Amino acid sequence: MSSVPEQNNPYAPPQAQVQDVPPTEEGTVLASRWMRLWGAVIDVIFILLAMWVASLITPWNIWDPSKADMTRFALVDAILGYGLFLAVQAYPLYKDSQTWGKKLLGMRIVRADGSPASFGRLIGLRYGVPCLFNVIPAVAQVWGLLDALFIFRESRRCLHDNIADTIVIKT
Question: What is the DSSP letter of 122?
Fold first, then answer.
């Protein structure tokens, strides 16, 4: 038995109180998981429509079966896809910190403390970093699953929310 008091024990576990729920402004209401899911579905529909139009008017066509082989360079598709995402979503993200899906369902992206999220934070951290993870095949599947599962925490924050220090609120 050690005679060292508990508070001086360098091997003792930390005593910090850590909570999963981020502090928010008074009156801020987090968007529900279902609202966020439907907002994401609407955003995917917008992007799929934009990809379809792009496949009609440019040589870039991700649905072309002749290009569906292992030699296809995923980074090029990621860059083009992210550019298309920005073409569709940059305006509402810049203007109101919303994607079209969030705008239609009455949600907005803010910092965890309730302050406005900058456009750079949104396109760089919230959407850009996950885009990079999706380029690496094995990482993409793990990232996608973990990112989605994190929403079931009390804070309703996905991994991309943690990276960008954001939350999604009702407007």
Answer: I
